[in-house]
Carbonic anhydrase
Amino acid sequence: MRGVTHNMAASYYNRRTKTSRDAARLKLILTKQCVITAIRISPAIVVHLKRGSNFNRSLTMYSLPILFGVFIASLAVASPETDIPSQQEFLIANDESLSPAHFGYTGVKGPIGWAGLSPNNALCSTGSWQSPINLNASIGPPAVNPKVRIPDGYGDFENLGTTVEVPAVGQTYFGGKLYQLQQFHFHTPSEHRINEEYFPLEIHLVHQASGECHGSRLVLAAVFEITTNGATTQLVSTLARQIHKIAVPGSKTRVYGLRGGEIISVFQNYRLYQYYGSLTTPPCSEGIIWLVAQAPLPLDVGSYLAFKRVLKFNSRYTQNTPGLENLIKVAASQLPK
Ligand SMILES: [Zn+2]
C-alpha cells in the first residue's frame, strides 16, 4: 500500500460509516412505515373501488404497485449494509447513543459486573486476553510502525454516556492490512498503565479491517500527561473548548478545525507497544490488535479538567497479563466455600 497522506477534504471527518445496526433499524423503520401506510390507505382504496369512478380506479391501479415498489425498495436500500456485520460489535461496545447505556463504571453495572449484564459479555469475566493491561518491557514494539491517515476537518462530538466520541473517517495501514478508522474516544483516567503508572487521559482510535478473523480490529491508543508549561495537542484542546456543550449524555455538537497531526506523528514515528487484547468495554471481544504509544502526549490542565467534568470516570481496571487467567475467575476461585 502506498500513498498514505495526511490531508484530505474536511468533510471526510463527518462521513460516518453506516453500520449493520443502523441498517437493521432503518430496515425495520422503513418496513413499519410501509405496513402502516398500507393499513392507513387500504380503507380509502376499498372506498374508491366501491365508488367506481374512473379517477379512483386509476388511482388504485397505480397506488398498489407503487406501495409494493416502495416496500421492495426499502428492503433493497437497507440490505447492503449487512455485508459488514463485524462493525455491529464495535457499536455495541462504543456507540451507546443508539440505546441507553447498558453498562457503566459504578456498582453492579461497573466492570466487575459486566459479564452479568448479558450472556454476550462472558469474555469480560472469563477471557484470558483482556484489556487494558500494564505495559512494560515485556511487551515488545511492532516490527514496523503503522501508516496513519486521518483527514483534517470537522466532526460531531458525541456524549455516549460511557465516553465522548468523534465518529471519523481515516485509514491505517499496518501489518500488511488496511484498517478503516471508525471513531476515536477518550477515557479518564487512562486505561492502560505504563510501568505501573496511570495517566490522566487516554485516546482510543478504533479501526476495522474487512473480515471477521483474528486481527481484523485495531486500536491505536495513547495516554496523555499533564504539562507544567501548558503544552497540549491541537486535537484535544479544540475538543476541550467545546466539551461543555455535550455535558448531558446523548447530546452532540459539531466541532470544526480538528487536526490530528501531532497524534498521528506519535503512532508513525515513535516507539509503540504491540499486544493482542480485547475491547475494554462490553462485550470485551478479544483478538484486538493494540498499538499503544510508549511516550505520553502533552495535556494542559484546563483541557484535562474540562474532559474530566464530562467524562467523570470511565476506566476499566487493569487486567491480568495477556494469556493468564481472567482476574475475576481467579478471584471467584478464592471465595470462601
Ligand atoms: Zn476505549
Observations:
- The chain has nine helices and twelve strands.
- Confidence is low (pLDDT under 50) at residues 1-98.
- The domain at 86-333 is CATH 3.10.200.10 (Carbonic Anhydrase II).
